Amino acid sequence: MTAHISADFDSGNIVVLSQDGASFDLEIRKDHQSDFYQWFHFRLTGAKGEAVSLRITNAGGSAYVGGWENYAAAVSSDRQAWHRVPTSYANGTLTLAFTPAADSVWIAYFAPYAMERHHDLVARIASAPGVTHERLGSTLDGQDIDLLTLGEGPKQVWLYARQHPGESMAEWWMEGALEKLIDAHDPVARSLRQRATFHIVPNMNPDGSRRGHLRTNAAGVNLNREWNAPSIEQSPEVFHVLRRMDETGVDFAMDVHGDETIPYVFIAGFEGIPNWTDAQGKAFHLFRDTLARRTPDFQTKHGYHVAAPGKANLSMSTNQLANRFGCVAATLEMPFKDNDDLPDADFGWSDQRSKRLGAECLGALHEILDALPTR
């Protein structure tokens, strides 16, 4: 049997440059109409029990070269459990070296969240009591922008994920949060649904997700730089979501992401917005500190630099929403690597840890909901 690599499937991304037996030279394909690239996802067949060498030769030109330091790729034979395998980076090349235990294995930058799983998630959650589903609009590729709504309380909570499609951990987080919210036996979920109305967009970027992009939509646009002036022509995903936010108002918003380089879970706030209020800041810090108390997978020491007063980038959703609505907004970041505070040599930061963090974030929100500023 001859070893073979393919990537012509949902979220697939790799180009085979050359092959010598079970040794391959590969390249990651750039996002369409963009120079961004880092996400890879492909299938290796015909190499069971054989030492393979997979060299991604253009890793040195990727969007976040620092992301390769201490990084390990994810591999699965059943597309359920994604284990990390020996991975090294040197001289611009990322090398995966391991021996497959199965005839067919999938290899990815992080555990993928395919559009088919997205559709299954939306269908499953939408069928739960008290949940409504709505198509907000269409992407440039003609896919639906899904909105799930549940709860009957006065606080308006928006959760949205995967503006950057290669950050698949964000939709795993969504799966965990949604499963908690619909659990009829969970007292925290029941209380949250009574006190707040949740508006949830599990995937902000279906086109980039299906195309195997790292950071952009079908037009090569970074959606998280479109929130000051979204357009139907370039960023319909943001256009439709922001229009609905204007209709409902926003008291709390969380934008869920993954970070390529920082090996910790953290949140970024909105400190530099022109309309900053101390009440917003106090509630944001209360949420952050509550989450840190609830789970050892979250910390507050490592993260992004804080913008100076009045210098926030209002094209980013967290800043735009906090400034626009006077709400508490947060960008949640999870690692592609591992959480160095609580490492796991086998799985690293994983899909399952992402799901559990989604549930913990709702627990923290439950504790601080009444402290949110009144609009």
Question: Could you characterize the architecture of this molecule?
Answer:
The protein has 375 residues and is of the alpha+beta class. The protein is built from eight helices and 17 strands. The protein has two domains: 4-108, Immunoglobulin-like, CATH 2.60.40; 115-371, Zn peptidases (Aminopeptidase), CATH 3.40.630. Helices cover 26% and strands 24% of the residues. A seven-stranded mixed beta sheet has the order 11-12-14-13-15-17-16, with helices on both faces. A hairpin with a 5-residue loop joins β11 (132-138) and β12. The longest helix has 18 residues, at 351-368. The N and C termini lie far apart (65 Å). Belongs to the peptidase M14 family.
Structural class: alpha+beta
Low-confidence stretches: none
Helix percentage:
25-40%
CATH third-level topology of the largest domain: Aminopeptidase
* Largest beta-sheet details: 7 strands, mixed
CATH architecture of the largest domain: 3-Layer(aba) Sandwich
- Anisotropy-based shape: globular
Number of domains: 2
Percent range for β-strand residues: 15-25%
Q: Let me know the average pLDDT.
A: 98
Tell me the total number of β-strands.
Answer: 17
Spell the H/E element sequence. Answer: EEEEEEEEEEHEEEHHEHHEEHHEH
Radius of gyration: 20 Å
| CATH C-level label of the largest domain | Alpha Beta
Any idea what the CATH superfamily of the largest domain is called?
Answer: Zn peptidases
Distance between the termini: 65 Å
Strand order of the largest sheet: 11-12-14-13-15-17-16
Number of distinct helices: 8
